[in-house]
Task: inverse folding
């Protein structure tokens, strides 16, 4: 919808048709856990930025309950299923955007399609989860330790349910280092969530999850394993699929087929540090992809910047953030990397309510070039990840980061900002 | 003391003598308002990072109540007044650091030296202010709208006193734009502080402040006009004094005289954007100056980075931050500058507790190079100034800032971070 809006703005006379298999447009999937938990009131409607009707009033022909079934790039048309009318028709295009999004990963396990096993992706999912939370669903099992699953576990605890996370690894949030993941697990447990690490899920039966450590009773199972690109439609049309099965795009969001573009959780990005294609499903990238694709489809010339995978989450009063590469990821990418970790506080030490924060910077040996960072602490502490993301984008070394003129006042940090303290520590190890 | 510690670390056999006119070392002057307000407990002692005795144990010969009266750079010695013994003696040096700090500006007005007119600089000042706050001092008048004065006004309100700020300008915090200053004034007034703008102070009499709008009753007057460098000792010794009467130093913290160095609130810095000398008295710079001076005095080779004047304060739950140049300052520096301002929230809009934040970016016309920023909002919102400071240091344009991969989750911002939103707005005006 971001792309459609951009086309509308840039090319007022173009005809724009949007095919939406569901009935919602322009909503914040990231907000679902907060609606389920009741922090955000007003139900799932609160997450809608712009309804199909609002888009229509702006001259965008949104057709809900219309599913794109096939693309014929040679003929330049799409086969569409009109679910309401129960008929199929073909719709021609001059320019086509494939914005099929992502889907929760559903492992191929017995019982995976039982109705009590839910993903967290669409507002339809949100409605189901909210309904269950409000009806007093008691036993929730989250499969996998991705951030959306953790956020939902916290939300269901807020609703008075029990919540158990079952994770194959020893700790949740596999994209961050294990010791950071352990601290996240501890915070969840402190909040009343049960965390079961190193446990495999083997299947589902009505009312229970079968695991390598026996059955777990469950009224609801939430899939929190991650997201995969919904690229089947594009793949079937011969559009190039690449990293992690995501649709391959250039920095204009153009696919391998002339006149076909892609944006959002179905499309790949380029990593700023490695220069390699990468699949990272984040709302910010989807939005940016859409903006770039839309302007280019309208004859403009805009480029998507490479990405760092900067992400943040707030769990049980804990803020966790990451940007760029972990040391492990850097080594996997063939870089000679090291990390420096510091523990400090988010206020001057003489404040009795100073909160702990841990910063880990990852850098390239010899050059000292910053490659990534992880921060865990209070929620405002974690947002300091942006300083690091900016420094990585600028190609700064840890010595340059240590020299940054960052804001200081006693209610915010010790004299040196935690990011600068970590950079100082890293300088010693270059 | 930072310099002394650095020399101790780098040159274990060097003799290090520190002359301190008072009796405290290594304290956080920035923390004084929080001790006076009672947010920080434990009295002024809480602000001391390292006492003279602790320094002595580390081999630094700290002599308290010893005041440097004159420097003879030809002979290489200092005339010292030992206040306890009531005698003067000369002390030779191989390398000398002038770290005489800053002093509250005391305007030349009748009654300025009356004992109820106090600065906020030393722990002695802090002891007096804390004592008055605890003894139920009722009517406090702050002269000037600098941030330390505003912080103290808030602190005295917390203690149940009345606090009136008398400021020559229409609004406080002259280093930020007037409309931001007005919002700070409104927050102070909302907290119970009386703010009197466009009022001149004409003098002091016991129990009252004489102003252009008549007398104000006061048990205590706090000077909050700003800080000046205490450079008289250096000037009398023929050491070069420059911008705003601060001691001129190169990026090694060396003064115009061989073997004499300077660091802290008595010394100038170099502005990163203009490349010109600038006097900005901040704890971060003092600490950094000291570190650089100390290592260089011990034979090392370290450079002080140029500064942006990045500053932050928390007043009455409001966070206010600045970095780089305001538009006015940029124009004064001969730059063709413009500003873009946006209002947004610190959480996704569907959170009922989303807080307002305003970001103003200042950039160079034609190039779009970022020159400065001001942020006002919640306290965590203001710390986003660091993203801008990092971007300015990297020489980024507003278009590059709009493309930064900043962290997003609904509890932290709308999909686009306020800094990126402001950069988008600025792009339109380049």
Result:
């Amino acid at each position: 919808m971001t792309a459609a809006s951009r086309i509308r703005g840039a090319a007022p006379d173009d005809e724009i048709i949007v095919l939406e298999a569901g009935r919602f447009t322009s909503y914040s999937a990231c907000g679902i856990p907060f609606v389920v938990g009741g922090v955000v009131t007003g139900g799932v409607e609160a997450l809608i930025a712009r309804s199909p009707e609002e888009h229509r009033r702006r001259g965008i022909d949104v057709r809900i309950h219309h599913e794109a079934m096939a693309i014929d790039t040679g003929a330049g048309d799409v086969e569409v299923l009109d679910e309401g009318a129960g008929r199929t028709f073909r719709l021609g295009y001059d320019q086509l955007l494939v914005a099929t999004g992502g889907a929760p990963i559903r492992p191929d396990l017995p019982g995976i399609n039982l109705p009590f096993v839910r993903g967290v992706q669409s507002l339809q999912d949100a409605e189901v989860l909210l309904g269950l939370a409000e009806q007093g669903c008691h036993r929730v099992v989250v499969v996998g330790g991705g951030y959306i699953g953790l956020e939902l576990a916290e939300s269901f605890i807020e609703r008075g349910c029990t919540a158990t996370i079952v994770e194959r690894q020893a700790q949740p949030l596999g994209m961050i280092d294990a010791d950071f993941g352990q601290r996240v697990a501890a915070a969840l447990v402190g909040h009343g969530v049960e965390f079961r690490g190193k446990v495999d899920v083997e299947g589902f039966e009505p009312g229970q999850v079968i695991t390598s450590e026996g059955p777990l009773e469950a009224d609801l199972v939430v899939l929190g394993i991650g997201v995969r690109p919904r690229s089947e439609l594009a793949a079937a049309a011969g559009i190039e699929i690449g990293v992690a099965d995501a649709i391959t795009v250039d920095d204009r969001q153009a696919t391998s087929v002339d006149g076909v573009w892609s944006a959002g959780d179905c499309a790949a990005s380029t990593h700023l540090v490695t220069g390699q294609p990468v699949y990272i499903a984040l709302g910010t990238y989807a939005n940016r992809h859409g903006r770039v694709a839309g302007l280019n489809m309208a004859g403009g010339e805009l480029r998507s910047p490479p990405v760092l995978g900067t992400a943040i989450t707030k769990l049980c009063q804990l803020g966790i953030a990451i940007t760029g590469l972990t040391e492990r990821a850097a080594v996997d990418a063939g870089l000679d990397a090291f990390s420096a970790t510091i523990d400090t506080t988010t206020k001057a030490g003489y404040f009795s309510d100073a909160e702990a924060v841990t910063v880990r910077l990852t850098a390239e040996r010899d050059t000292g070039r910053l490659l990534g960072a992880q921060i865990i602490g209070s929620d405002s502490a974690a947002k300091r990840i942006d300083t690091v993301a900016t420094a990585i984008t600028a190609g700064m070394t840890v010595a340059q980061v240590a020299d940054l003129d960052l804001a200081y006042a006693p209610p915010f940090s010790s004299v040196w900002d935690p990011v600068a303290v970590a950079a100082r520590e890293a300088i010693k190890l270059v």
DSSP finds 13 helices and 24 strands in chain A. Chain A touches chain B through 60 residues (CB under 8 Å).
